[in-house]
């Protein structure tokens, strides 16, 4: 098995002066399924699929940096954070604390498993493989997708445009603070499970809703309390006769489900 490791340390630390630096990494066996797995603490990914066989990883500009107390009048030396790119068993792993955006050019059919903590938006486009996307403090944007998507953000908006649905593959979109905006093909057959605790739900699909919102009562009058009725704002609806489950859940935000025009 062929193993390739590339450690992008000094070159990326100089990127602010010399422009973006890059490394190209081949997969061990291009004829087999391929995966890119990424985890950045202070930085995030932009991934574009294309008719390529290798993966190109490119370091972008430095993220905004706020000097700590005590650094007044001092110059910052270099750029903190490193990136490691490693290939093994047809999986390319990108990791590190970083302090910059990372742009990736990849085969369109690649599977993506990407996580960001603090570093801006997570963006993917023109991907036919499945995608698992997590961004703690930032938005998620996935356009031109034909594979299944699992997307979660803690503080950010989720925007996804699917060119087609993967049959028999459920999908999920969730965020704590932010809107969820998903575009589906007009002929998509799916069962939508939607919940927004402090927001509204909008769609231009003809949807057959299921009667699943049942008020739950709790009687505390016998103990000097009050009678409480809670209505769960969850809706289940079928479009074009129903199909694989697609889950939408946000605490503070709206849900938009659109037809692709």
Write the layout of secondary structure elements.
Layout: E1 4-8, H1 10-13, H2 15-18, E2 22-25, E3 35-42, E4 45-50, E5 55-62, E6 83-88, E7 91-96, E8 100-107, E9 111-118, E10 122-125, E11 131-137, E12 140-145, E13 149-155, E14 158-162, E15 171-177, E16 180-184, E17 190-196, E18 201-203, E19 207-210, E20 216-219, E21 227-230, E22 234-239, E23 245-252, E24 255-259
Parallel strand pairs: 3-7, 3-9, 4-8, 4-10, 9-11, 10-12, 11-13, 12-14, 13-15, 14-16, 15-23, 16-24, 17-23, 18-24
Antiparallel strand pairs: 1-6, 2-5, 5-8, 6-7, 17-22, 19-22, 20-21
What can you see in these coordinates?
The protein has two helices and 24 strands. With 261 residues, the chain is mostly beta strands. The strands form three sheets. The chain has a twelve-stranded mixed beta sheet with strand order 1-6-7-3-9-11-13-15-23-17-22-19. It has a ten-stranded mixed beta sheet with strand order 2-5-8-4-10-12-14-16-24-18, with no helix packed on it. Strands 20-21 form a two-stranded antiparallel sheet. It is flat, with a radius of gyration of 22 Å. The relative contact order is 0.15.
Key terms:
12-stranded mixed beta sheet; 10-stranded mixed beta sheet; single chain; mainly beta; 3% helix; disordered N terminus; flat
Compact overview of the structure:
The chain has 261 residues and is mainly beta. The protein is 3% helix and 54% strand. The longest helix has 4 residues, at 10-13.
Radius of gyration, rounded?
22 Å
The arrangement of helices and strands along the chain is EHHEEEEEEEEEEEEEEEEEEEEEEE
- Quaternary organization: single chain
End-to-end C-alpha gap? 46 Å
Low-confidence regions: 1-20, 75-80, 213-217
């Amino acid at each position: 098995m062929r193993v390739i490791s590339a450690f992008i340390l000094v070159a990326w630390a100089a990127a602010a002066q010399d422009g973006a630096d890059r490394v190209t990494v081949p997969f061990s066996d291009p004829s087999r399924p391929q995966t890119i797995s990424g985890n950045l603490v202070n930085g995030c990914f932009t991934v574009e699929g294309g008719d390529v066989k290798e993966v190109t990883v490119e370091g972008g500009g430095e993220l905004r940096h706020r000097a700590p107390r005590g650094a007044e009048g001092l110059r910052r030396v270099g750029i903190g954070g490193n990136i490691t790119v490693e290939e093994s068993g047809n999986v390319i792993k990108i990791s590190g604390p970083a302090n910059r955006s990372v742009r990736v050019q990849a085969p369109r059919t690649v599977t993506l498993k990407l996580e960001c903590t603090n570093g801006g938006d997570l963006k993917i486009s023109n991907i036919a493989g499945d995608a698992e996307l997590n961004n703690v403090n930032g938005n998620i944007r996935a356009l031109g997708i034909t594979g299944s998507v699992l997307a979660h953000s803690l503080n950010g908006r989720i925007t996804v445009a699917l060119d087609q649905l993967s049959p028999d593959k459920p999908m999920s979109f969730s965020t704590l603070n932010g809107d969820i905006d998903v575009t589906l093909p007009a002929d998509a057959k799916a069962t939508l499970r939607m919940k927004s605790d402090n927001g509204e739900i909008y769609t231009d699909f003809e949807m057959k809703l299921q009667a699943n919102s049942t008020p739950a009562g709790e009687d505390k009058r016998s103990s000097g309390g009050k009678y409480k009725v809670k209505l769960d704002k969850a809706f289940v609806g079928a479009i074009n006769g129903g199909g694989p489950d697609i889950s939408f859940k946000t605490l503070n935000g709206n849900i938009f489900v659109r037809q692709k025009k």
